[in-house]
Design brief:
Layout lengths: L1 H17 L6 H8 L12 H5 L9 H4 L40 H5 L19 H6 L37 H4 L2 H4 L38 H36 L1
């Protein structure tokens, strides 16, 4: 009879001893606040409070794998699955098997703002800086080889003030398919209607983003190499000319 009573009590004590109290958002902040020394993984709490998520979501709503202290030993427990709330899947850079960008690569991790906010990483005015992280050449950083043969002619209808025709307007051309990997248009910019890249060459002549790449843009690469050889020849010729002149003056002086 005593054995029957002892066994359930032993089981209850074991369960209680192995149970860890569930986390609260306050617990997360205590460890991961920028001012805390409890963890090397720190978040800008102030920036999160200004984000679009702050009013409706807490840490544990996104980091669903973090339940208790066990997450410290579980690799990947803090990973966020944005599709829990967003139907839009991340298909950006789908053809790249390695180092594909994540949602936070463009939208940031915690300070996620509406695209209409001028401080948002995906606002029209900020896109050039966001996209430059992975696409420096396309965002205007030309190398020494592609600088000379990158002459372009502006041919937009200047009387139409309804759109931003700047080359820095990434989303104007790179709409849903280029940004999210789907056909859905995500901006009112209309550049993509005429600039369809390689799908319709009659609408796009030449390269919007010149790059001295012998595989992707062999024409630009060939022109850049020719320019480089011409510059080297001019430098050598000029240097030789001055040496010849200096030598001639030396002989006359004697």
């Amino acid at each position: 009879m005593k054995l029957i009573v002892i066994i359930p009590i032993f089981i209850l004590v074991s369960i209680a001893a192995g149970t860890v109290e569930a986390y609260t958002p306050e617990d997360c902040i205590d460890c991961h606040d920028e001012k805390s020394q409890e963890s090397s993984l720190q978040i800008p709490v102030g920036a999160f409070k200004t984000s679009a998520h702050a009013k409706e979501l807490s840490c544990l709503d996104c980091h669903t794998g973090v339940v208790d202290d066990s997450h410290q030993q579980t690799v990947g427990s803090g990973v966020v699955d944005c599709t829990q709330c967003h139907d839009q899947e991340n298909r950006h850079g789908l053809l790249r098997s390695e180092n594909r960008p994540k949602c936070y690569s463009c939208h940031t991790r915690h300070r996620i703002l509406a695209s209409e906010d001028e401080h948002s990483s995906v606002n029209l005015g900020q896109l050039i800086y966001t996209c430059r992280t992975c696409h420096p050449v396309e965002c205007g950083e030309t190398d020494y080889l592609s600088f000379l043969p990158s002459l372009q002619l502006g041919s937009h209808k200047k009387q139409d003030f309804g759109g931003d025709y700047s080359r820095l307007n990434c989303i104007g051309c790179h709409q849903g398919m280029a940004s999210h990997g789907e056909d859905e248009i995500i901006s009112e910019q209309t550049c993509h209607k005429c600039h369809r890249s390689r799908q319709d060459a009659s609408l796009l002549m030449g390269y919007i983003h010149p790059q001295a790449d012998h595989i992707k843009q062999p024409g630009i690469f060939a022109a850049a190499v020719i320019y480089q050889i011409a510059v080297i020849i001019l430098l050598i010729g000029g240097f030789g000319y001055f040496i010849h002149m200096f030598a001639g003056k030396s002989k006359k002086g004697k």
